[in-house]
Amino acid sequence: MFNLDRVIVEFDKGLRTLLAPAQTIRPMPGREMPEADLNAAQKSLSAALMRVNHSGEICAQALYQGQALTARDSSTQQALEQAAWEETEHLAWCEQRIRDLGSHKSFLTPLWYTGSLAIGALAGTLGDKWNLGFLAETERQVSRHLEGHLARLPAADEKSRAVVAQMKLDEEKHAATALEHGGAPLPAPVRLAMRLSSKVMTKTAFLV
Predict the structure, then answer these.
(1) Is 34 a member of any domain?
(2) Mean pLDDT along residues 19-43
(3) Is residue 4 part of a domain?
(4) Which pLDDT score, from 0 to 100, does residue 194 have?
């Protein structure tokens, strides 16, 4: 059933995601570590990777908001909303690291958000088992992506590495939670399409 109140709430969340600084309850990982003395190339690489991570979290936030909007079961909505909140914390951490490294967020953030919101809402209309399966597969792919970033981040940039490591743990937990709530494995063509679209976003956000 169409719920105008939920639409208004999610619209407000979208504006906050795009226009307001993200908030976090948990302390930022690595906050007590000293800032590394990175050279220009290392700082540029760290900043670009954290910009990609920030864009990925924007996509995740929008996906989960769209999925929660069209989910049918209240426990599914709750699982999606909890995941979305933790993605908001990831946004805050990534934003802080980008600022610390003297760089900027992706200029295409509104595009990442809008497209992901639409995909999430569509996934939700397919039924909760596919909705949760989509969540689980998203988080598995994000976890692999973060593992790759841990391999690429400069070893001296312990603050960025601490943020990415905690994000990876959270994403793995989200995937497990989705499966526990009845998420169904997605067909191989869908998983491939998700990987291809993710590559487009990551390569673009790395540059802009």
Answers:
(1) no
(2) 90
(3) no
(4) 84
The secondary structure of 14-34, three-state, reads HHHHHHCCCCCCCCCCCCCCC
| Four-residue CA torsion sign, 197, 92, 51, 114 | positive
Whole-model pTM: value is: 0.85
Two tokens, residue 112: 């990442």
Identity of the residue numbered 100: D
Domain contains 172? yes
Rounded distance, CA 126 to CA 92, Å? 31
Structural domain for 96, as ranges: 41-207
Residue 73: CB atoms within 10 Å: 15
CA 106 to each of CA 26, 57, 85, 153: distance values in angstroms, whole numbers, following the listed order = 24, 12, 21, 18
How many domains is the chain built from? 1
Residues in the chain: 208
